[in-house]
C-alpha cells in the first residue's frame, strides 16, 4: 500500500494542497534520512528500503 499519515497538530496555516517535504530542504529547514532514522530508532537503510518504488522522487 502507498499510504502515509502525518500528524500536523500544532502546525499553523497548513491547508489541503500544501507541499510536504519528508526528506530534504524547504527554505532554511532540512531533514535527512539520518534524522528520521535516529528519531525512529533504526538505520537509514531501513527507512529508504521501506519507501515504495511508486513514491515520486524529486531530486534538485
UniProtKB/TrEMBL annotation:
Any single Gene Ontology cellular-component annotation: cytosol
Enzyme class: isomerase
GO aspect biological process, one term: D-alanine biosynthetic process
The keyword tRNA processing is assigned to this record: no
Keyword Isomerase: yes
One Pfam family here: Ala_racemase_C
The entry's keywords: Isomerase, Pyridoxal phosphate
Listed cofactors: pyridoxal 5'-phosphate
Domain Alanine racemase C-terminal: 1-60
UniProt xrefs under SMART domains: Ala_racemase_C (SM01005)
EC number of the protein: 5.1.1.1
GO molecular function: alanine racemase activity; pyridoxal phosphate binding
Designated name of the protein: Alanine racemase 1
